């Protein structure tokens, strides 16, 4: 859906380019009147044009959210007046959130110097920096988050799937269930959901075993991929027909013997850390629900709780004058 928004934006930009000469001529011919109008509105000496509705953000900027239809000429005049007023007040960053239904207003904001910050399914966000300095506005989200699930039963069989689409389509390769975490979804819940959707297996999240960061993965965005181990709570497979070609419990030795696993280092390491957790003393990161000093919303903090508890017990008996263990290795 975001692609459709971008296409709309592109068509508007294209139209803006075709009309750029006309717009600039109109802007030049009316620059004096526009400036006078903006200044008069900003100082309250004219009631003809109102400032755009806005709220202050937490960083010395303002946010304008446009949802109701507005005449483009009136929007342009209001925007000029608002920018003039905000510049006087020392406002720095200006954000305009335009509903997709108001795409016809984009060109007027762009003509004032706004740039595209990001687009979502139902809106486009434009940004502008008022001071004559390099802007410090945060960039758009840089990463997407993926999860891979290592699930093993008591028979030492791992849950494996074959995909209907993507680069592995039709190759007969068995892989671990994977997917992308949805907006607002926690990593642990995303892993449980993906396994359920692809295989019908109910699971209990145990730990994050490892993670990988890669770049230029999806529309030039970076990617964080979290390897999770889950405990199966059910065992009868019901595969997802739309995305999964096949799903089964596969002996771990058979899974590991696949040429694909031997060549693909990521899958090889997922298998290695999964077995290290099951058979050895490997400790991953478990989610701890924590509070924030800035909001009432809670979040998950992932940490090696087991070793932290051991360290806490050890430190309680260790003399304060002793050199910390990690320093001894430096």
From TrEMBL:
- Please indicate if the UniProt record lists Hydrolase as a keyword: yes
For this UniProt record, give its keywords in alphabetical order, as a comma-separated list.
Hydrolase, Metal-binding
Keyword Cell cycle annotated: no
Q: Which taxonomic lineage is given here?
A: Eukaryota, Viridiplantae, Streptophyta, Embryophyta, Tracheophyta
- Pfam families with a match to the protein in the record: NUDIX, Nudix_hydro
* Protein known as: Nudix hydrolase domain-containing protein
Q: Do you know which PROSITE patterns this protein is assigned to?
A: NUDIX (PS51462), NUDIX_BOX (PS00893)
Q: Name one GO molecular function term.
A: ADP-ribose diphosphatase activity
> Known PANTHER family for this protein?
NUDIX HYDROLASE 2, NUDIX HYDROLASE RELATED
The UniProt record lists the Nudix hydrolase domain at 142-274
Family assignment?
Answer: Belongs to the Nudix hydrolase family.
């Amino acid at each position: 859906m975001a692609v459709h928004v971008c296409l709309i934006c592109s068509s508007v930009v294209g139209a803006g380019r075709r009309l750029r000469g006309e717009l600039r001529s109109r802007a030049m011919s009316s620059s004096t009147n526009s400036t006078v109008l903006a200044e008069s509105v900003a100082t309250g000496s004219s009631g003809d044009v109102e400032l755009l509705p806005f709220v202050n953000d937490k960083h010395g900027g303002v946010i304008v959210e446009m949802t109701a239809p507005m005449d483009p000429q009136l929007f342009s005049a209001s925007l000029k007046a608002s920018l003039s007023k905000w510049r006087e007040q020392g406002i720095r960053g200006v954000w305009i959130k335009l509903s997709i239904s108001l795409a016809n207003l984009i060109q007027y904001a762009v003509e004032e110097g706004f740039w595209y910050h990001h687009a979502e399914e139902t809106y486009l966000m434009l940004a502008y920096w008022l001071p004559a300095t390099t802007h410090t506005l945060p960039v758009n989200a840089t990463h997407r988050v993926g999860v891979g699930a290592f699930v093993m039963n008591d028979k030492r069989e791992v849950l494996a799937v074959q995909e209907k689409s993507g680069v592995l389509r039709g190759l007969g390769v068995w892989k671990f269930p994977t997917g992308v975490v949805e907006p607002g979804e926690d990593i642990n819940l995303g892993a449980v959901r993906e396994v359920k959707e692809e295989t019908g297996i109910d699971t209990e999240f145990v730990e994050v075993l490892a993670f990988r960061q890669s770049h230029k993965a999806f529309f030039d965005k970076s990617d964080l991929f979290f390897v999770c181990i889950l405990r199966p709570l059910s065992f009868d497979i019901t595969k997802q027909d739309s995305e999964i070609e096949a799903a089964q419990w596969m002996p771990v030795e058979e899974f590991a013997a696949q040429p694909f696993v031997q060549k693909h280092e990521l899958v090889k390491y997922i298998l290695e850390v999964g077995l290290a957790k099951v058979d050895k003393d490997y400790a991953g990161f478990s989610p701890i629900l924590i509070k924030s000093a800035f909001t009432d919303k809670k979040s998950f903090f992932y940490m090696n709780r087991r070793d932290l508890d051991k360290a806490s017990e050890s430190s309680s008996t260790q003399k304060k004058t002793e050199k910390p263990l990690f320093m001894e290795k430096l």
